[in-house]
Design goal:
This protein is an alpha/beta fold. About 35% of the residues lie in helices and about 30% in strands. It has two domains: about 220 residues, 3-Layer(aba) Sandwich (Rossmann fold), CATH 3.40.50.300; about 60 residues, Alpha-Beta Plaits, CATH 3.30.70. The strands form three sheets. The chain has a six-stranded mixed β-sheet with strand order 6-7-8-3-9-10. The chain has a four-stranded antiparallel β-sheet with strand order 2-1-4-5, covered by helices on one side. The longest helix is centred in the middle third of the chain and has 16 residues.
């Protein structure tokens, strides 16, 4: 079932076209990546989804209904630019924000206690926000975003400022929220996080959608037939000599003395594997699909050249 449908949405700021007939269908219970370079139109679309601004044309549907004010309570939004009251105590502020979102105080205290313990910030409950590090403040803001258990969560660069351990904790929490039924829109420049978390993506550039689909399908569509083979042999000389026979092979040593890695570019591996088996023991064979980072750069540069 589609949770959010963005249908032919266009938005102008004067003569500037921020969004140009954007169409996106976001399924329920998924993590959907909204990608694009700076100025591509991502923030404008997020503002429309949060009803901060309205499209000039087109429409957004929420569970099949035209998006309107009543849906706001069912959306949680974590902006890239965080905003907490610096002088307020952490716990007092978290309860206040939860109540603004319709959570009763007793329920808010119970939920907040659980999340504060999970994020290891329980000892900061009575501290002022300004006493917290940036990472600690990020945790508090994340918790206040999800505390009313919304159906849709919009995260804009949620990993900014986190060390690897806390970034991993946040990733686990996002996956858990999806598994419990939330639909998540993730806007980020961190392509590694996209590969780890996102089920599907839309890549936006110059206000247009230039690439859409499941992450696995997109990587497969951009397959360049690159393959890696590792062979184990006492005599490496015949292996390295293969580079003179095949012009689309790279041969290089590995950290293990008796192993050699061969990288094939746009070549059928069958004949080569047959020759390698007569030279030593095949340790591994794998296809190397392009990363989302490589695909991002390729697609954006291609469109920029066409404009």
């Amino acid at each position: 079932m589609t949770k959010i449908s963005v249908n032919e949405v266009t938005k102008h700021y004067g003569d500037y076209i921020a969004l140009d007939r954007i169409c996106i269908d976001i399924p329920e219970r998924c993590i959907y990546g909204l990608l694009g370079p700076n100025g591509a139109g991502k923030t404008t679309l997020i503002r429309i989804l949060n009803q901060i601004t309205a499209p000039d044309s087109g429409e957004v549907l929420f569970n099949g209904e035209r998006l309107c004010q009543k849906h706001i309570a069912r959306i949680g939004y974590l902006p890239e630019e965080r905003g907490l009251y610096k002088k307020m105590k952490v716990g007092e502020q978290a309860i206040y924000l939860a109540e603004l979102k319709g959570v009763k105080k007793a329920d808010a205290q119970k939920r907040l206690k659980e999340w504060f313990e999970k994020f290891e910030i329980g000892g900061w409950w009575d501290k002022k926000v300004e006493e917290l590090s940036k990472g600690m403040q990020q945790k508090v803001q994340f918790i206040t975003t999800i505390i009313h258990e919304p159906e849709i969560l919009i995260f804009d660069e949620p990993f900014s400022g986190f060390d690897p351990i806390n970034a991993n904790l946040l990733k686990e929490s996002i996956l858990d929220l999806r598994d419990k039924g939330a639909t998540i829109l993730l806007s980020t420049h961190n392509m590694a996080s996209v590969e780890e978390l996102c089920d599907s993506i839309t890549l936006v550039n110059h206000g247009k959608s230039i690439l859409q689909g499941k992450v696995t399908d997109i990587k497969r569509q951009h397959d360049t037939n690159k393959r890696e083979i590792v062979i184990r042999t006492d005599d490496k000389q015949p292996i390295f000599a293969l580079a003179d026979t095949y012009n689309n092979i790279k041969v290089e040593p590995t950290d293990i003395d008796d192993e050699t890695k061969l990288t094939l570019f746009s070549a059928s591996p069958n004949e080569l594997i047959g020759r390698l088996l007569s030279m030593g023991q095949l340790v591994s064979f794998k296809e190397v699909l392009p990363s989302m980072n490589d695909i991002f750069i390729q697609e954006v540069q291609s469109q920029n050249q066409a404009v």
